[in-house]
Amino acid sequence: MLLADLTWPDLDPAVAYTLLVPVGSTEQHGPHLPLGTDTAVASAVAAALHDADPALVLAPALPYGAAGEHEGFPGTVSIGEDALRTVLVEYGRSACRWASRLVLLNGHGGNVAALRSAVTLLRHEGRDAGWLSCVADVPGVPLDAHAGRYETSLLAHLHPGLVRTDRAEAGDTRPLREVIGELRAGGIAAVSPNGVLGDPAGASAGEGARLLAAITATASAAVTAWDPDPGTGRLRPPPA
């Protein structure tokens, strides 16, 4: 069920609904990917979960997040960690008046601290909330940090017309752990002038389809298991 298309009588108070909410960001993704990349990925994963189980209620995406590290590039709009946390807490408090469970599907790494804090509070208040990130390990595909092959493949599959392949170029390819200090001090622009952390070379729509399937399978297993980490509220997948 698509929340935005329903009327209030369509929701039966006797039914235990699970509400899926994609949480994204509006931020630079190098010269070749759209600003809405993270929102698009989170929305696609949520839509795939909904397609597999139409009893789930799919909410419109939240397209803004904590993306201050990208503000050195035009187009980025960040609401910051504190504001995002407040939005998520109030969203959860309101939605859980009728939804039995709340699943926040995150597409942007910078949102994690706010998600942890917000969901931990919601759970402390007695609301059955959980969150998970839209990532998965796929053999042969490097999990680079930002706008590299991983995200470029996903967007080539999801929205090929929005990928400017003629502009695709490598950025800083060092592991994130080696640049995190510089990144925190000066943002992405201080590390990578083109905004890319990784290399989009080798990306393909076929690879993106494999990635989306893996991410969706991981997310589906975690939602089905419903085992939120007691310290963070992150939904944990079942043991392998």
Describe the structure.
By secondary structure, the chain is an alpha/beta fold. It has a 4-stranded parallel sheet with strand order 2-1-3-4, sandwiched between helices. α1 (37-52) crosses α4, α1 (37-52) packs across α7 and α2 (80-95) packs parallel to α3. The longest helix has 21 residues, at 205-225. It contains 7 helices and 4 strands; from the N terminus they run βαβαβαβαααα. It comes from Pseudonocardia tropica. Its cofactor is Zn(2+). This is Mycofactocin biosynthesis peptidyl-dipeptidase MftE.
Give short descriptive properties of this protein.
240 residues; alpha/beta; 4-stranded parallel sheet; 4 strands; hydrolase; metal-binding; MftE; Creatininase-like_sf
Summarize the structure.
The protein is α/β, with parallel strands linked by helices.
List the helices and strands and how they pair.
Layout: E1 18-23, H1 37-52, E2 57-58, H2 80-95, E3 101-106, H3 112-124, E4 129-133, H4 149-158, H5 176-186, H6 188-191, H7 205-225
Parallel strand pairs: 1-2, 1-3, 3-4
Helix pairs in contact: 1-4, 1-7, 2-3, 4-7
**Within the largest sheet, what's the order of strands?**
2-1-3-4
How many helical stretches?
7
**Can you tell me the overall shape?**
globular
Tell me the radius of gyration. 18 Å
Task: Give start-end ranges of low-pLDDT stretches.
Answer: none
Q: Based on helices, strands and strand pairing, what is the structural class?
A: alpha/beta
* Number of E-state strands: 4
What is the string of SSEs from the N terminus onward? EHEHEHEHHHH
Helix content: 25-40%
Cα distance, first to last residue?
Answer: 31 Å
Instruction: Please summarize the sheet with the most strands.
Output: 4 strands, parallel
Could you tell me the strand content as a percent range?
5-15%
Mean pLDDT across residues = 95
